[in-house]
Description:
The protein has 8 helices and no strands. Helix 2 (30-49) runs antiparallel to helix 5 (86-106) and helix 5 packs antiparallel against helix 6 (110-127). By secondary structure, the protein is an all-alpha fold.
Amino acid sequence: MTHRMHMDTHIPPLNGGHGWRDTATRYALLPLRVFLGVTFIYAGLDKITDSAFMKDAGSGSIGDMMRAVRDSSAIPALVDMALKNPVAFGYTIAFGELAVGIGTLIGLFARLAALGGALISLSLWLTVSWASDPYYYGNDLAYLMAWLPLVLAGAPMLSVDAALRSRRRQRAGGYR
């Protein structure tokens, strides 16, 4: 008895790659980009508009949260640095999330925005959600992994970066 291995060898159509698979491939990262962009914009706005969060101490404050996670974090020195001025740290994270979210959503400096998102998620994983047990209960690690495809690929479709790239190609005579 012989067995044949089925290999899905998709051959692009002769019409220049405009089949549904090619279209789906080109737009595959768009839902992830929209989700992460909207989520980080929301997270940044939520922090900025929450008067209890942007305080040195008190229920729901950034200061109390950082003090609560200090001893269980992977890098207590990072938390100590934030505790020198918790309110400034809170605003830095909030405005960082806003910048990352906007850049990701509109696709402006998309790889840089995704790298910023990955670094924010990494810092939150190593501090705030490090003690989650089991580890996959902490969502910051999942966000970190979600940012990586965007760090690698950027925003090739429906983005300011793609429009600028197309404009440069047109000015260079289509050879870039």
